[in-house]
């Protein structure tokens, strides 16, 4: 049988013999060809059954429009995002960042939010801890290099204000990448309140708390999803003593700020603000599926080195291309993976920060975590 090369949804070429037909379908995040008229993505139903979601061409176009992917505009004076054709400088917030903000606040609250932020800035001048300021100063020098769009003074102010605003957590490494990414789309005060939304309503606060309970929680959840979706890779990582936190920690602390190129960060946050941590998990699964064949050929140190080379690829188009990932497709395809959000959130709610374990009885644990495959 001749092996033909066919394009997958993420832009990599695979041998046709490597693809599994419908009769022998096994868990896979994305297996499609250019010849297919419909994009197929995996789904998990609440009963643990895996099925493929059929997405028509029209729906895919609608999805692209809803993601506000307007990168075709060339605004010569704006080095920040190109989400809106009418924004000509770096002082304005793009419409998609306002859309994120308006999931909690109303447009008539913007003036007050800005006034409140100005007061917080003044307060931070007097009450910011010296230790925090030193750490912030160290980290902003290594955040996105010499990116044209990023005003390091603005980044410094937002992080310093945050360290005073939430003193029980303060500033923690990783926040610098989160805020810098938000500043790519938003002006200073909007970026601050988006960070507030992420830490509160969208529950990223515990990844920065003492003892890092959130890091443990999300790594455990990723383990369970890997076991369900990518059992061969999950088993290989166990044999190679690769713990999830070895490669996921930077992704979690920075909310993928060290991994996803800035030009595609809008698509990521569009979905994150809708699906919260579930979308984060989908991205992890999508990336692991994408590199699965290569990872299965590697051993311990090689695997760790491999992941380290995938981070911090932000601006250089050649660097982004060398990753061989069609990021726009990856981010959009990940959003189509159906995972029961209520089910996952119910499990996350049962995580005990002290024991760092999910407090589930054995039957619930088996049904809700282990047996996603049915």
Which features characterize this protein?
374 residues; mainly alpha; Helicase, Ruva Protein, domain 3; Cyclin A, domain 1; two-stranded antiparallel sheet; 18 helices; globular
Description of the structure:
By secondary structure, the chain is mainly α. The protein folds into three domains: 5-64, no CATH class; 73-201, Helicase, Ruva Protein, domain 3; 207-370, Ypt/Rab-GAP domain of gyp1p, domain 3 (Cyclin A, domain 1, Orthogonal Bundle), CATH 1.10.472.80. The protein has 18 helices and six strands. The protein has helices at residues 57-66, 95-101, 110-127, 130-140, 152-165, 175-183, 188-199, 213-229, 231-239, 244-253, 265-275, 277-290, 292-295, 300-309, 317-322, 327-335, 341-349, 362-370; strands spanning 5-7, 13-15, 39-44, 50-55, 351-352, 357-358. The strands form three sheets. A two-stranded antiparallel ribbon has the order 1-2. A two-stranded antiparallel ribbon has the order 3-4. A hairpin with a 5-residue loop joins strand 3 (39-44) and strand 4 (50-55). Helix 5 packs across helix 7. The chain is globular, with a radius of gyration of 21 Å. It starts with a strand and ends with a helix. Residues 1-52, 67-75 and 369-374 have low confidence and may be disordered.
């Amino acid at each position: 049988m001749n092996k033909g090369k066919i394009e997958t949804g993420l832009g990599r070429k695979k041998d046709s013999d490597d693809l599994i037909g419908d009769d022998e379908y096994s868990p896979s995040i994305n297996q499609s060809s250019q010849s297919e008229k419909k994009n197929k993505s995996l789904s998990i139903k609440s009963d643990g059954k895996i099925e493929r979601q059929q997405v028509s061409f029209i729906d895919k176009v609608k999805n692209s429009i809803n993601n506000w992917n307007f990168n075709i505009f060339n605004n010569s004076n704006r080095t920040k995002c190109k989400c809106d054709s009418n924004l000509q400088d770096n002082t304005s917030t793009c419409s998609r960042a306002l859309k994120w903000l308006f999931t909690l606040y109303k447009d008539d609250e913007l003036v007050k939010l800005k006034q409140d932020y100005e007061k917080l800035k003044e307060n931070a001048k007097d009450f910011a801890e010296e230790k925090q300021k030193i750490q912030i100063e160290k980290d902003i020098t290594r955040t996105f290099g010499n990116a044209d769009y990023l005003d390091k003074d603005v980044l410094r102010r937002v992080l310093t204000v945050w360290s005073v605003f939430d003193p029980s957590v303060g500033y923690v490494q990783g926040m610098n990448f989160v805020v810098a990414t938000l500043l790519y789309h938003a002006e200073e005060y909007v970026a601050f309140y988006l960070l507030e939304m992420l830490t509160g309503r969208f529950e990223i606060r515990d990844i920065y708390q003492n003892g890092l309970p959130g890091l443990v929680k999300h790594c455990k959840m990723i383990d369970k999803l890997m076991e369900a979706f990518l059992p061969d890779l999950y088993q290989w990582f166990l044999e190679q003593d690769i713990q999830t936190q070895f490669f996921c920690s930077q992704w979690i602390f920075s909310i993928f700020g060290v991994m996803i190129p800035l030009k595609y960060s809008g698509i990521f946050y569009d979905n994150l603000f809708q699906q919260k941590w579930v979308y984060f998990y989908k991205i992890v699964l999508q990336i692991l599926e994408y590199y699965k064949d290569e990872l299965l050929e590697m051993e311990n140190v090689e695997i760790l080195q491999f992941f380290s080379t995938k981070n911090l690829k932000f601006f250089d188009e050649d660097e982004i291309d060398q990753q061989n990932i069609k990021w726009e497709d990856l981010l959009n395809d990940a959003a189509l993976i159906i995972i029961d959000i209520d089910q996952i959130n119910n499990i996350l709610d049962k995580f005990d920060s002290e024991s760092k374990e999910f407090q589930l009885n054995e039957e619930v644990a088996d049904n809700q975590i282990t047996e996603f495959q049915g």
